[in-house]
Structure formats: C-alpha cells, structure tokens
Amino acid sequence: MKPTIRDVAKMAEVSISTVSRVMNYPDSVVESKRKRVMDAVQKLQYQPNAFARGLIFKKSFTLGLLIPDIENLYFAGIIRGMQDACIKLGYSLMICNTDRDKERLLSYIDNFHEKQVDGIVFASDVLYPEYYDKLVGCRIPFVLLSSHTYDYEIPSIEVDDEAAAYDAVKFLIELGHKEIGMIGFNHDNSIAGPPRYEGFIRALTECGLEQNIGKIRYANHRFEHAYEAAHELFTAYPELTAVFCVADEFAMGTISYLKDRNIHVPGQVSVVGFDNLRMSSMFIPKLTTIAQPIYELGYRAAEKLHELLVTGSVAILRERMDHRLIVRESSREK
Questions:
Q1: Boundaries of each HTH lacI-type domain copy (predicted)?
Q2: Whole domain around residue 305: which residue ranges?
C-alpha cells in the first residue's frame, strides 16, 4: 500500500501538520524534527499528494506566467529560469501567450482565477488599468517581469533599460562613430521602447551629436519588421555608420538588410543589439549586444512572487538586475 502522510507522522513521532510544514516550509520546523521527518520520508519513499497539500494549505502550488510572444527567444530563457525556480520552490507553472491582445490577456486572467493559481508573473507588457483592475478584482497576487509601473505599488524585476541603451550608444560613440541611427520599438505598445529611446537620446546629447536624434525608425518586435525599418532608415540616412537596435532580433534584421545591399558589417556599418539571445553568438557576424540576465530574471521573478505569497510583501519593491555590454564581431572602430 502507498504510504500516507499519517505513516510518515507516526514513524517520525510528530503531528501531521509538522510533516506538512517540513514538506512546504522546512525552515519553519526545528532541525531535530525536520531530520526525523525527512528520514521517515526516505525510508517510506513517501511522495506528497499535490491535491492533499492544496486542501491543507488552501493553495494550488501553481504559478501563472503571462508572456506576449512565445515565439520570441527571449521568453525561452525567461521560462527556463522560472521553471527551475518553481521546481525548487515546489510549484507547477502554467504559461499563457497573450500575443499582446487585451481581450485574450483578460480571459487568461479569468482562466488563472478558475484554476486557482497562487500568483501570476506578468511579463514584458504595459500594465494597463484594465489589467490591474482585473488582477486586483480576482485577488491574485502578481509581480511584473521586464516591466514596471509607477501608478501602482506592484513588485517588479527588470534591467535599467535607459542606462543599458545609453551604454550601447556611448560605446558606438567611443568607437568614433558620429552618424548613428536607431531601430526601436513602437512606443504605443511597448514597455521597454520609451526608456531605450531615452538612453539613445541621452548619449547623443551628452556627446554633442544631437543631429542624430531624428534618425530613428520603429518596428513591431519581429525580424521582418526590423528589416523593413532598416530599409526606411538607410534610405533616409545613407550616411549612417552605426545603428543601435533595441533587440537582437532587430539587429539581425538590420544586418540582413545591409548584407542584401552589399553593405559590410562591421566594415561599413557597426550594429549593436540588445538582449544577448543564444542566437547572438551564432549569427554571422556575431552580435555585439547588451546582455540581459534573461535566465536570472525569470528565476528571480518566481522567487519574488513566492516571497510575496509567503510573507505578504517583498523586501525590494522595484528591483533591477545588472546588464553588461558584450563586444563581438558586429562593431568596430570608425
């Protein structure tokens, strides 16, 4: 017969509730009792029943993740980080792809509520008032990942997009480039677009290169959109010798456009991306880029949500992780 939690409690000479605490919150149990329980679990080969745990703690031990584009390689790293953290913390993970569709996102929140998820990580999207109202109305704790809001006191974890973009553009300027353009996100549906634009502007202004401020074209998150934006940018400003792209996929689209026009990268034009996707070191030329700690962001988001669920608050409300510039083959001195 399969061993039960009662069998573990009897062998360890503790209460059933103590066994439950050891399974879910081991630090809350004194070491001597914890050791007896774990010894009993090992001897009996006991496996906790998730449904039973839910009844005891009134929790599903499931977290939800809302992402805007599951085909984007950035989110593969985010999901991997969250999944690993969930395994460590004892949660299952449910993932929903919103395609940046408001009605779909709101329906997913309803689905999460029906499934009684314990909390939600809301990733890489603008927290519109209707989203906030729905989450609060459903009484689902949530944290923001690669996003933020100053309208509400919501925990968040991200990099400093403005500072990271500034570092990328300052790097190009220090290489001697004076004609610098940018391929950016459309600002009307992007949380990262405006601060990365501001970092671009700050670097140019500090270095007296204000003539480049208008040399920007925008794209909608995909390679093919960046390819078209690069066509528009270089048609309008053929004198450009460097381009800052707000995503590695945009950098790849830009380089592909230039290659098709027989413009050599980095011989004639330097290109810097943003993210450091796995593909950035496989692409030809290998991308110079701003590296986000993608896996760590996902992992930390799960930890932060767990902290909120267990304690009711977080130690750091708006948390930022470090970025770094990785210099590869797509940039060179002017």
A1: 3-57
A2: 62-159+294-321
